[in-house]
Amino acid sequence: MSFQSLIANTKRNYEGRGIRSIIVPMKTGLMFAAVAVLTCVAPVATSQDMTAAPKGPSVSMEPATLVTIPGGKAGEVHLGFRVARGFHINSNTPKSEFLIPTILKLDAPTDIVVGKITYPAGDEMSFPFSPDEKLSVYTGAFGLGVLIRPLHNVVPGKYMFRGQLKYQACDNAACYPPKQLPVQFEVKIAKGATAHKGNPAQSPHVHH
Asked: Of the residues 13, 46, 151, 188, which has the fewest C-beta atoms closer than 10 A?
């Protein structure tokens, strides 16, 4: 049975019993491995489960560099994050539909458009619960690129962007309830270039 099939079968069995997510230490045996992986699949259903999770697994955001973007032009902002030592999170494109991807959601100020968000490729790593299959994950430091495009009518100045990085952290033995890391950074909008209006070119066929 493949790793993906193992996740799917275990998930169906536990959801049929009304259990959405559990956290267990890794033990020997295929079923314990499947249960540990299952905790990466569904959000926690009760507050008791949330309080039972350790505070260790987390992602922090590095201070963002202030980027200046002219009105009417597009520019990219680079955001840096770091996964706590001993943990990993799924990449934006995990190899199984049952795994929770890492996603950045942002709210933009009026008249400023948030474009494409570029995610890095995940590191392919195997873990004790599935040594023969590799997962796509982020560990340590990783960065995202955010395309920002202010409209022509934006008043020059500094603008604050806010949002959340949605992720789920796991270690070699278990996964923990999904989290949302608050994200905020400033972008400086400069005055856009003004189009110069010159005299129209005169036709060489016009004679005075």
From this structure: 46
